[in-house]
Specification:
- The structure holds 2 protein chains of 2 kinds.
- Helices cover 74% and strands 0% of the residues of chain A.
- By secondary structure, chain A is an all-alpha fold.
- Chain A has a single domain, classed as MetI-like fold (Orthogonal Bundle).
- In chain A, helix 4 packs parallel to helix 7, helix 4 packs across helix 11 and helix 6 packs across helix 7.
- Chain A starts with 22 loop residues before the first helix and ends with a helix.
- Chain B is 74% helix and 0% strand.
- Classes of the chains: A mainly alpha, B mainly alpha.
Chain lengths: 275, 280
């Protein structure tokens, strides 16, 4: 019988602080180096930011926000901007769901013997669409679509196509293979197998991904206009650029309200669905 | 057999759900129409001769990408600044998130040991939570716009914007992580008279360290992406450079920077998922 060992042997020394074989030590050392190099290379005016002078200018800046401009015509304009933001996000997400599904099919291996010849190329395209943020897409699209919500809608659609396409492809690949195999054994073509076996199984998942992205896109659409792509953001950039501070305050408040409403709606609907 | 004048529909091809499908499709169209009007959704604008010519010229100027030594050096410097803004922002964000988490974690409440938390600590914790949620829900781009006005163009505005938004996000999620774990060890420590910090360091932290680190790394990756975007409102880094090249229609420079940006995001993605897998 082995002798019982003390839970914490008294003869054991604490491990040395740094050990060349300890991966966590290297990770922490690398992390410290990265943080120090970042602060050193940026020459931030943080000290200046916390100075009395800067606090005064910040105070003046915030003071100019009050009172917010709540005149009826301007509130109308802001409300129209909010509606435009919502419409941009909804239409952009819808286009993205359609585009994402269209790209997800070639990007996934639908059954064991599916060669999926375009899989790698489509995934590369999806990754490229996904890794360029909406705002950069919007700035690029302004050149061909001009100022306004069209550029914003298309930008949201392009980025979200990348995101949803990848998620949809994963969902299609992970769908239970049984029903599809049964239909294929009867000699049905790929399109019908997709429409009658694979899609109905993953549809709830696809819908929930799309709704989740819509929620994200409302938030993104609110600020997208800063480069001129419509919605509340465009109003914000316009009035802030002209130093109309009371108007800026109203727009900021509307933006926060929109985001808070979306958060609350998403929280409530999730509670309701998880019941 | 000749075809009859009005062929009776083949019962095998009759769609039993035809009417409901048609109804749903027309309802969707009726809903979509006002959306498209509100977005001024006229994609054919893209195909007008003038726009086609401008976009064609811009796209054609993408090739060849700008690869001059001086420009590449500039891109390398701005790429590093983008990473540095994200890292510095997250570091300052932690200065907000960590104290806020320690103050707001329910698992560290002494009065909650006896059942209900006392009124004052409860209100304090809830107020802190709400403050974090407010910090988090202001988009970082809006913070950046505000700070650009106060501290001027440059990386400081970007760092502060990331610090505030991500401070809120990290603080909120850290609190959720700490409160969702098994409270047994922490409770035992608190019951036996250890201080809150001791209970945190020896009870909560070892339990949740991997998850906390993993979430922080994930957020660092997100911060790199958003620091590029912040550049578009003048907060330094790759985004600012990209914005000015776009305004000058320098397609070659835009192509190079977009490629660098995609590579940077892919690299951050790899690094982050590798590190998180190592954490288990």
């Amino acid at each position: 019988m082995r002798p019982a060992r003390a839970a914490n042997p008294p003869y054991k020394l604490p491990p040395p602080l740094f050990d060349a074989r300890c991966r966590a030590c290297w990770f922490v050392a690398g992390l410290i180096a990265l943080v120090v190099a970042s602060f050193w290379s940026l020459d931030l005016q943080i000290a200046q930011f916390f100075s009395a002078e800067s606090a005064a200018s910040m105070g003046r800046f915030v003071g100019e926000f009050f009172p917010p401009d709540l005149s009826a015509p301007f509130v109308h304009k802001v409300a129209a901007g909010a509606v435009e933001t919502l419409a941009m996000s909804a239409l952009g997400t819808l286009l993205a769901a359609v585009g994402g599904l269209a790209l997800a099919v070639p990007a996934s291996r639908l059954h064991g013997t599916d060669g999926a010849p375009a899989r790698a190329a489509t995934r590369l395209l999806l990754n490229a669409l996904r890794s360029i943020p909406e705002l950069v897409w919007a700035a690029l699209l302004l050149i061909s679509a001009g100022l306004g919500p069209l550029a914003g809608t298309l930008a949201l659609a392009l980025h979200t196509t990348g995101v949803l396409g990848r998620l949809f492809a994963e969902a299609l690949e992970n769908a239970p293979p049984g029903p599809g195999a049964a239909l294929r054994a009867q000699g049905l073509g790929a399109l019908r197998v997709l429409a009658y076996a694979t899609l109905p199984q993953v549809l709830p998942q696809l819908v929930s991904y799309t709704l989740y992205r819509w929620e994200n896109n409302i938030r993104a659409a609110a600020v997208l206009g800063v480069v001129g792509a419509g919605g509340l953001g465009q109003l914000l950039a316009f009035h802030m650029g002209l130093f109309h501070m009371p108007k800026t305050a109203t727009i900021l408040a509307a933006m926060l309200l929109l985001v808070a409403l979306v958060d609350a709606a998403s929280y409530a609907s999730r509670r309701w669905l998880m019941r | 057999m000749s075809t009859p004048a009005l062929p009776a529909p083949d019962p095998r091809l009759r769609d039993p759900a035809l009417w409901s499908r048609l109804a749903w499709a027309s309802a969707a169209l009726v809903l979509l129409w006002p959306l498209a009007v509100a977005c001024e959704f006229r994609p054919w604008v893209l195909l007008e001769a003038d726009n086609l010519r401008v976009s064609g010229q811009f796209l054609a100027s993408f090739l060849p990408p700008a690869l001059g030594a001086e420009f590449l050096w500039l891109v390398a410097r701005e790429t590093w600044r983008t990473v540095a803004i994200a890292t510095a922002g997250i570091t300052l964000g932690l200065l907000i998130a960590v104290p806020a988490t320690l103050l707001s974690a329910r698992a560290l409440s002494v009065s909650a040991l006896g059942g209900r938390m006392a009124a004052l600590p409860f209100v304090l914790r809830q107020a802190l939570r709400w403050a974090l949620i407010v910090l988090r829900s202001v988009p970082e781009l809006v913070w950046a716009l505000v700070f650009v006005r106060v501290v001027g163009l440059g990386p400081t505005a970007g760092v502060l914007a990331i610090a505030l938004t991500y401070g809120g996000m990290l603080g909120k999620v850290y609190g959720d992580i700490l409160d969702s774990g098994d409270p047994h060890a922490t409770e035992t420590l608190l019951r036996n008279g250890s201080g809150r910090l001791q209970a945190f360091a020896y009870g909560l932290l070892p339990q949740n360290a991997a998850e906390l680190t993993s979430y922080t790394i994930y957020r660092w990756e997100c911060a790199i992406r958003s620091s590029v975007v912040l550049g578009f409102v003048g907060a330094g880094g790759l985004g600012q450079q990209l914005d000015s090249s776009m305004k000058m229609f320098a397609g070659g420079e835009v192509a190079t920077m977009l490629a660098v940006f995609v590579a940077l995001v892919a690299l951050a993605d790899r690094t982050s998922s590798g590190l998180r897998r190592a954490l288990g």
